Amino acid sequence: MKRIKYQATIAMPALSIFRDGILEWYRREGRDLPWRHTRDPYNILVSEILLHQTTVRSVLPVYQQFLERFPTIEACAEGPLAAIKEITDPLGYKVRGSWIYEICRYIVTECQGVFPDTLDALLALPGVGRYTAGAVLSFAFEQDAPILDTNVNRLVGRFFGVDYRDQRAEIRHELWALAEAVIPLGQGAEFNQALMDMGALVCTAKKPLCLTCPLYRGCAMGQSADDGLRAAETRVRYTPREKKTPKKESLA
Ligand code: SF4
Q1: Is 233 within the bounds of a domain?
Q2: 222 lines ligand 1 (CB under 6 A)
Q3: Atom of ligand 1 nearest to the CA of 213
Q4: Pocket of ligand 1 contains residue 85 by CB under 6 Å
Q5: pTM for this prediction
Q6: How far is the CA of 208 from the centre of ligand 1 (A)?
Q7: Residue 165 lies in a domain
Q8: Based on the structure, what is the number of domains in the chain?
Q9: What is the CA(59)–ligand 1 centre distance, in A?
Q10: Ligand 1 and 208: CB distance under 6 A
Q11: Pocket of ligand 1 contains residue 202 by CB under 6 Å
Q12: Shared domain check, 150 and 134
């Protein structure tokens, strides 16, 4: 399957440990979530925007309710916006309702109702950035598109020894390049879901489960870092490439 934009070189042993460890773990421990049972790009988009800045548990009932009330792009584009927001606002981050609405209106009016399936066309949708575009490309259209949400950013950075908290453009580019290079050819949909679950459930922000992590023997942080975590689970001393660290972990 065609690669999209980024290039990175990774030593084969580390790449094998990363890919095999994550896929084996995910097939055993991965979460069974309703948006993982569909390839419908509209459903995927709705799930991704609902999941923005909130938890899976909070999103589950809202996702169901939203798709029952607005089952298609056309239904959502007709609104009214107030009815959309009535469902989405209780999740917080109240812009998400108008975000979904504007995207659907754009697809109906500018794309003749056909969901875009290329990176450039997805990035042209209102409010859609690289993460959401990558999620739709991989989960709906089964392309090997990279994703880099907070969890994947942290996991990839720790494993490959890149300071994932550094917001400089070259570091962001390096992490995106790694997130793309780790995807086994033709397995973008499953692998990206696995990355997200591994980041959310094992390589967590405050207490990564290094002792039981299947990636431990190849992981830069797992093998050598502390990362400032002071967690009993971590037995390593991590040296970020730059000492300067932004106060908050956020993605560019
Ligand atoms: S060994 Fe620790 S730091 Fe490395 S990927 Fe696993 S949980 Fe994350």
Answers
A1: no
A2: yes
A3: 6
A4: no
A5: 0.84
A6: 6
A7: yes
A8: 2
A9: 27
A10: yes
A11: yes
A12: no
> Of 139, 158, 180, which one is at a domain's C-terminal end?
139
User: Are residues 106 and 165 located together in one domain of the fold?
Assistant: no
pLDDT per position as a tens digit, 153-202: 999 999 999 999 999 999 999 999 999 999 999 999 999 999 999 999 99
Q: Are residues 87 and 121 in the same domain?
A: yes
Active site residues: 48
Q: Is the CB of 225 under 6 A from ligand 1?
A: no
Which of 159, 160, 164, 201 most suits a substitution to test ligand 1, by most atoms within 8 Å of the C-beta?
A: 159
Q: What is the pLDDT of residue 6?
A: 54
Q: Are residues 87 and 210 in the same domain?
A: no
Provide, rounded to the nearest whole percent, the portion of the chain with pLDDT above 90: 77
User: Between residues 47 and 241, which one has the greater pLDDT?
Assistant: 47
Residue 67, pLDDT > 70, answer yes
User: Ligand 1: which atom is nearest the Cα of residue 158?
Assistant: 3
- Residue numbers of the domain that contains 60: 40-139
CATH number for the domain including 16?
1.10.1670.10
Calpha distance 28→8 (Å, rounded): 29
* In-domain check, residue 248: no
Question: How do residues 217-227 score in pLDDT, each as one tens digit?
Answer: 899 887 765 54
Confidence of residue 7 (pLDDT cuts 50, 70, 90): low
